[in-house]
Amino acid sequence: MKQSLWEGTDLNIKTSLSKEQLQQENQRLKALSELDGLTGIYNRITIERKINEALAAKHSGAMLLFDLNNFKDVNDQYGHIAGDELLQNVAYILKKTMGNNMVARTGGDEFVIFYPNTLDMEELEQKRQMLQKRLGQIKIKNSKQFTLSASFGDAVYMERDDYIKMFSRADKLLLQNKQALHHVRAPKSQMADRLNKRVEMDTKLIRYDLQESTPVEGAYYLSYEVFQGIYRFLERALCRQGHKDDLKSFYVILFTLTEKEGGILKPEYREQEMLLLKTQIHDSLRRNDVFVQYSSCQYLVLVSDADAAGVELISRRVKERFYGNQPKNTADVILQHSFPLQASETRGSQSDSTAVGMDEAVKKS
């Protein structure tokens, strides 16, 4: 019988050693994945993650961004091996001079330095001058004429900053400084590459600023100015030929709180009752519906994908929840009126004849 490869060995020891070796290899590969393969400092993905983590923890920091001037000429005149050695020497200086601060090669001849503690502009300028001096000491073999220099941009932490925002500000300054250095526009190919990079960064920044940070279920509560802007935008969209059918399912609902006899709600009850109604409107509607406080006793709601019957169901649901959560011995009534959205060009001339009124007083039973 053929002898087993594992016969006479301790399987537990073998398995243990194998796991330990595997863990070490995984750690080694993880470390390698975080580094730039040529220079041995952080790559772009890693530095973005680490800077975001530092900003989230300390809410402070400063960034220096730089790229090497005329680096293409180095590759063209001395070869790509000399260019690679130059980049490695830059990384060596960064690691030696920056201490525990984070450094990375973000692409080509572009590098990022991040200082966890916020520096003022004078301190950043001192850092820049020191680094420029160190870079000027780098030499290329068999060349006595070459002197290395760099163009810089910087950014100091501002509220709600992340890597994208700080990099974008620093990159814009870098580009301005590079153009001022040469007093002429950079080559079209270089300008196009940097422009594409800036557009990509700006796009990320815009999406970050516009998107809702922590989306929640229920209707979206807005300021009156924003609500009015959305309403007018949809009015204008209705004016476009071929789009009227797409938006005819938008309805506006007005909820009004009154006393049982129809009078104005007493001030001592108003704030509490309006807060209760706000909660029920929010919870009864969907994430794509919006609402706003119109007056001290009224809310405006804009709903989509609805008709008169659907609006009636929505209103009834709000009222039932309001009355179900209302304290005892209160006599408030919700008056509700709704109308469909119309093209802005018809507003005023047809609103009285086409609005769908569904006034009602629903008393708490």
Which strand order does the major sheet show? 5-7-8-6-9-10
Beta-strand fraction estimate: 15-25%
- CATH topology name of the largest domain, in short, is Alpha-Beta Plaits
The CATH superfamily of the largest domain is known as Reverse transcriptase/Diguanylate cyclase domain
Question: How many individual β-strands?
Answer: 10
Number of domains: 2
Total DSSP helices? 12
CATH class of the largest domain: Alpha Beta
Which percent bin holds the helix content? 40-55%
Quaternary arrangement of the chains shown?
single chain
Order of helices and strands: HHEHHEEHEHHEHHEHEEHEHE
| CATH architecture assignment of the largest domain | 2-Layer Sandwich
Arithmetic mean of pLDDT: 79
Secondary-structure blueprint:
Blueprint: H1 11-34, H2 44-58, E1 62-68, H3 71-78, H4 80-97, E2 102-107, E3 110-115, H5 121-136, E4 150-156, H6 163-182, H7 188-210, E5 220-221, H8 224-238, H9 244-247, E6 251-258, H10 267-284, E7 290-295, E8 298-303, H11 308-324, E9 333-340, H12 351-354, E10 361-362
Parallel strand pairs: 5-7
Antiparallel strand pairs: 1-3, 1-4, 2-3, 6-8, 6-9, 7-8, 9-10
Helix pairs in contact: 3-4, 6-7, 10-11
Structure write-up:
It is a single chain. The chain is α+β, with helices and mostly antiparallel strands and 365 residues long. 50% of the residues lie in helices and 16% in strands. It has helices at 11-34, 44-58, 71-78, 80-97, 121-136, 163-182, 188-210, 224-238, 244-247, 267-284, 308-324, 351-354; strands at residues 62-68, 102-107, 110-115, 150-156, 220-221, 251-258, 290-295, 298-303, 333-340, 361-362. The protein has a six-stranded mixed β-sheet, sandwiched between helices. It has a four-stranded antiparallel β-sheet with strand order 2-3-1-4, sandwiched between helices. β7 (290-295) and β8 form a beta hairpin. The radius of gyration is 33 Å and the shape is elongated. The relative contact order is 0.08. Mean pLDDT is 79; it is low at 1-15 and 347-365.
